[in-house]
Design a protein that fits this description.
The chain is of the alpha/beta class and 225 residues long. It has helices spanning 10-22, 33-40, 59-69, 84-92, 105-121, 152-162, 171-179, 190-205; strands at 2-6, 26-30, 47-50, 53-54, 57-58, 75-79, 97-100, 126-129, 132-135, 140-143, 146-148, 169-170, 211-215, 219-223. The chain is 42% helix and 24% strand. It has a five-stranded parallel β-sheet with strand order 2-1-3-6-7, with helices on both faces. It has a four-stranded antiparallel β-sheet with strand order 8-9-10-11, with helices on one face. Helix 1 packs across helix 5 and helix 6 packs across helix 7.
Length: 225
């Protein structure tokens, strides 16, 4: 699950990043309006934490851009601005939630998970496909009720494919979503092949009734045979 933090205050940004990374989220932090616009122009995120007061621009303009792209419902406004007008305007632009500073990191974590549940799983904590169950809250997977041990990347790959069931997911989209934008510096996708290979074996060993099908030269598709 990939999260973008748009926050100019360094200590706050680092605390938010550390908190969410402890929950095994892939986090990308930026500090300026320009950096944020560059990110959202290229990448998709499961949740965006948006500070309104940025040093080089208004965060609400970022929200307008996200609304045009159809992603504003994944945004939590995180801002010291506590005026009713700012809150109402942000929600009218499609923001999912508004978290005024200061706040406890536990509250931030809870709000992020709530947005992810609503966006990906329509309010449910569990995603069930055939005999496979994925618990988004504790990052656990089970097959026929029996626990399936996955590392963080294997879990992220499986969850991303499951939330895109029967859709062809390109190798580049999968890599960018799970590993972040550093993949721009790589020449191949060997790291994806390795994770997919291990994940397939673990699913097969547990007799999971789902299949990760490779589409040669393009990517992968999760199917229920």
């Amino acid at each position: 699950m990939k999260i973008l933090i748009i926050e100019d205050e360094k200590d706050m940004r680092q605390n938010m990043q550390a908190t969410l990374e402890k929950e095994n989220f892939l986090v990308e932090p930026v500090a300026t309006y320009k950096e944020a616009m560059s990110k959202i122009g290229v990448y998709d995120y499961d949740c965006i934490l948006l500070d309104i007061g940025l040093p080089d621009g208004n965060g609400l303009e970022i929200l307008k851009t996200l609304k045009e792209k159809g992603y504003s419902d994944s945004v939590i406004i995180v801002s010291a601005k506590d005026s009713i007008d700012d809150k109402v305007h942000g929600l009218e632009l499609g923001a999912d939630d508004y978290l005024p500073k200061p706040f406890h990191m536990a509250e931030l974590n809870a709000r992020v998970k709530a947005v992810l549940r609503r966006r990906k799983m329509e309010g449910n904590n569990l995603l069930e496909i055939a005999n496979v169950t994925i618990n988004i809250n504790n990052h656990q997977v089970s097959v026929d009720g029996e626990s399936l041990e996955l590392n963080r990347k294997e879990f992220d790959v499986l969850f991303y494919l499951c939330t895109n069931q029967n859709r062809l997911v390109s190798k580049s989209a999968l890599a960018e979503h799970v590993w972040g934008d550093y993949i721009d510096q790589t020449d191949n996708f060997d790291f994806i092949y390795s994770q997919i290979k291990n994940l397939r074996k673990k699913l097969c060993d547990k007799n999971a009734e789902i299949e990760i099908k490779a589409v040669y030269g393009i990517g992968y598709k999760l199917l229920v045979p």
